[in-house]
Design a protein that fits this description.
single chain; 306 residues; alpha+beta; Fructose-1,6-Bisphosphatase, Chain A, domain 1; D-Maltodextrin-Binding Protein, domain 2; seven-stranded mixed β-sheet; binds L-MYO-inositol-1-phosphate; Inositol_monophosphatase_CS; metal ion binding
Length: 306
């Protein structure tokens, strides 16, 4: 079954679903009073998250009934990603942003075969930025564009990264780094997270890496896309899930980026491994910046796992 899948057809369907889901997201009026929570008060979910996922399931299952589906809102503890062709869906990545009407929100859709993404689509309906990739065919962004303020707006499709000759990666002290606070705020993983953040941002005199700055899109998928575009040099997170990263992972690697484990020593993480470091395309410096980043991870690193 896997080798008969027409990736271009799947890509067209994922774009169709993403655009329609984007209309649902923009039409919704999330109100803090009607928001649900999951693990804690910062782990939010809305009726729109659930409605968008049900919509995606209906369209995808209609066309590909034999494919599996792994989605954030229908996930049940212990469900594993298999080698079967599987749609991986985050109906709203950036739910906290969505609830607060902060426009870093997207739907993230991927097809994975043998647990590796082969088609990925990430769509932000507020900016109408559509990121997409098909395995072996490059990574693209379709976005509104105007050459000057008086020119009409046109839709432009550009290959990623934006700079076709990306500069070498310098050290962390020459980098813009994406991180996320996430919703887990106590325990070992929280300690690893904020100690690493302090090391990244701290001055050299304090033993820190003095990165140019830290950024949080509030969405793993949009962090991956910013790295793919070459706008962020490194993104580091543990605790998010396959549905947060599957599409962005392919969009990044098809743009020349790499994904390694957030914990030291693993150059080949899995999409469901819940520990990620994404590094932008560069002619040199990818390996060195990974090893520099790994050198500041507190003993043992994250204990998140598939
Ligand atoms: C979010 C991730 C983000 C993480 C948040 C949350 P959601 O996904 O994209 O990277 O830090 O805790 O998990 O819940 O908005 O789909």
């Amino acid at each position: 079954m896997a080798d008969q899948v027409n990736h271009k057809e799947v890509h067209g369907l994922l774009v169709e679903v993403a655009l329609a889901a984007g209309d649902m997201i923009v039409a919704a009026q999330p109100h803090i009073a009607t928001v649900g929570t999951k693990q804690n008060s910062a782990d939010l979910v809305t009726e729109t998250d659930k409605a968008v996922e049900q919509y995606a399931i209906a369209l995808l299952k209609e066309k590909y009934p034999e494919f599996d589906f792994l989605g954030e809102e229908t996930y049940t503890t212990g469900k594993k990603l298999t080698d079967k062709p599987t749609f991986i869906c985050d109906p709203i990545d950036g739910t906290v942003n969505f609830v607060h009407t902060f426009p870093n929100v997207c739907i993230s859709l991927a097809l994975a075969i043998h647990k590796k993404p082969v088609v990925g689509v990430v769509y932000n309906p507020y900016t109408t930025h559509l990121y997409s990739a098909i395995k072996g065919q490059g990574s693209f962004l379709t976005m509104p564009f105007r050459s000057k303020s008086t020119a009409p707006i046109e839709n432009r499709r550009v290959r990623l990264p934006h700079n076709p000759n990306p500069p070498p990666l310098g050290g962390l002290d020459k980098s813009l780094v994406a991180v996320e606070w996430g919703s887990h705020r106590t325990g070992h993983n929280w300690d690893v997270k904020y100690e690493t953040f302090a090391k990244l941002a701290g001055s050299r005199e304090q033993g820190g890496k003095m990165v140019h700055s830290l950024r949080s899109m509030g969405s793993a998928a949009l962090n991956f896309c910013a790295v793919a575009a070459g706008q962020i040099d490194v993104y580091w997170e543990g605790g998010c899930w396959a549905w947060d990263v599957a599409a962005g992972w392919l969009i990044l690697t098809e743009a020349g980026g790499i994904v390694v484990d957030a914990n030291p020593g693993n150059w080949s993480p899995t999409v469901d491994g819940r520990r990620y470091m994404a590094v932008r395309a560069a002619p040199t410096g990818q390996r060195e910046i990974v090893e520099e980043f790994w050198s500041i991870i507190p003993e043992g690193g994250y204990n998140y796992s598939a």
